[in-house]
Design goal:
With 200 residues, the chain is mainly alpha-helical. It contains nine helices and no strands. Helix 7 crosses helix 8 (142-165).
Amino acid sequence: MAAREEQKQATRRQLLACAKALFQQKGYDKVSTRQISAAAGVSVGTLFAHFPDKHQLTKALFHEELNQLLEKSPPLPEQLSGLDFMARQSLVLFRYYERDRALSRGLLQNAFFEQGFFGEQLNGFIGQLAQCLSRELPTHGIEQRLVLAQAFIGFYFYQLMQGLSGVTPAEQWQEELLVQCRALLAMVSQDQEQLETGFP
């Protein structure tokens, strides 16, 4: 039984590796499930036993790539501000997407509007960011910091889409993201100060 499961996992990994290689060589839209199964040396039926369609295969590939990327990243310091957390994590991810813009666009166009696809990773990221924002906003509650973290994520996706549409490097995407985050953080801090002092 263990040998069968091991073989199943090996086939799955082979399918994902062949799919990625083909997407990079030919472009995402030009690759079929038949081509992927042929490159992996398995039948189309075997591919469908692992992934019901190309979309599900793409989601699996994307999840594995992102999980591996984040696992390989150096651990974050404990006393990290929200802006520092955003700066470090966004640059790691932006550089990943920048490496192969065409593939990244193909992967994202299939996954972007599926809340369930990014849900777990996004919620974890937003929670960590909200915790880190307590350094900048010590008097704000967790609910307020979660709303701010969600706004930062909106800025992140905006810069990701802008970056993948152009030719600028990932470092510039990050720089523009942090400008937006700092501006919003300054507004929130100023509003809180005005509430506390009673002056407009």
